[in-house]
Amino acid sequence: MRYATLRVLLWRRALDPHLGRWSLPGGRLRPDEDVETSIRRQLAEKVDIRQLKHVEQLAVFSAPDRVPGPRVVATAFLGLVPSDVDPEVPEDTEWHELDTLPRTAFDHQAIVLRARDRLRSKLCYTNAGFALAPAEFTISALRELYSAALGYKVSATNLQRVLARRGVLTPTGHTASPGRSGGRPAALFSFAGDGMQVTDPFAVFRPPGEAR
Amino acid sequence: MRYATLRVLLWRRALDPHLGRWSLPGGRLRPDEDVETSIRRQLAEKVDIRQLKHVEQLAVFSAPDRVPGPRVVATAFLGLVPSDVDPEVPEDTEWHELDTLPRTAFDHQAIVLRARDRLRSKLCYTNAGFALAPAEFTISALRELYSAALGYKVSATNLQRVLARRGVLTPTGHTASPGRSGGRPAALFSFAGDGMQVTDPFAVFRPPGEAR
Fold first, then answer.
1. What tens digit of pLDDT does each residue of B108-157 get?
2. In CATH, which of 1.20.140.10, 3.40.50.2300, 3.40.718.10, 1.10.10.10 is domain A126-205?
3. What is the pLDDT of residue A5?
4. What secondary structure does DSSP assign to A32-49, as a single string?
């Protein structure tokens, strides 16, 4: 299955240091931009990724020796692209499965793994699935996405129950065209609203009877 | 009540720019340290805070004009001190209630509010209370702490139920000395374990019957 694992976009370095190794897209902060403006510009310039559904700061990586030569402090971002988007990328750029990462430049493997862990946490207490899923999907397809991202087989029943309780799934009224196995056509859903939100609400601590 | 609101430690700037305004403790990154080593060193040197129960990266603040003069990019941290710790602080340093912040230097008010929001989120999906609470506490005292941090009156019943379900509260077997009102002495609890953990577990998505 095509999207059975998480994938990360890497490009092959054309210059020393670490010539030929795979590297996260990025570059230097310009005097007139903040870090988020900078990462969006660099993604657009270097790898033609304009379809990011979500971008957030991940962490600063600042070990004094993380890059050879003059010191470089990196602000890493987590950017999510829906599974049905297949942006054209330059020749030196490829999507790599996280399970079989090639040798990366600098500390980029650690950054990728940190991003994976952040995504896994967010899937559990936010509506983060909206940034991975296509506009419409069956529960079965969503279960494949969550399983790929979380790294274990997710129960479709639990997934639907939990997301419905959180109020983030909306039935679209459409059904998927029947698959090869025939049978009843599956209902299609979409995520209710865009933008990352904590879905395990503060309300859990509120006194009983109080409105959310 | 002493700890009825969140408080933040600020010091009054003795130099331009923004002389006399209140400022978060911090300073420049040295060539031989990463950002976390740096913030711990600076807290220890400047404000004698060695009793931090939790420190985490908050965000990078990088607007080009956030500080007058040469550009300064800041990595902000959230550091938590238990409510019963009252560290000695230098004369130019004070704890300020978040509800009545004085005029701050630069973008430090935005940093403080971001830290408050991070703490509020974390209280809802992690065991973060461990970093705010004394070693032993009654449910009633814990409820005051959560109410102060979340900014609304928390239900003691809900709080105990949710934290017990998450498995983060341990009865110590002790009781508090009776208060002025007399009555049954209240049971004392402690947090089970140190260190921040997501307590709304990934397990919610696991197939039924599988071990957590």
1. 999 999 999 999 988 888 899 999 999 999 999 999 999 999 988 888 99
2. 1.10.10.10
3. 87
4. T--HHHHHHHHHHHHH--
Radius of gyration for the alpha carbons in chain A, expressed in angstroms and rounded? 20
| Chain B nearest CA to A32, separation (Å) | 6
The answer to whether B32 faces chain A, any CB pair under 8 Å, is yes
Strand order in the sheet with B93-97: B22-23, B7-12, B93-97
pLDDT tens track for A50-101: 788 999 999 999 999 999 999 999 999 999 999 988 877 888 999 999 999 9
Cα separation, A166 vs A110, whole angstroms:
32
Q: What pTM was estimated for this model as a whole?
A: 0.88
Contacts of A144 in chain B (CB under 8 A): none
Listed by start position, the domains of chain B span 7-123, 126-205
Q: Is some CB atom of chain B closer than 8 A to the CB atom of A125?
A: yes
The highest-level CATH class for domain A7-123 is: alpha beta
- Is pLDDT at B202 greater than 60 in this prediction? no
Separation in Å, CA of B10 to nearest CA in chain A:
23
Distance from CA of A34 to the nearest CA of B (A): 5
> Which of B75, B123, B152 has its CB closest to that of A60?
B75
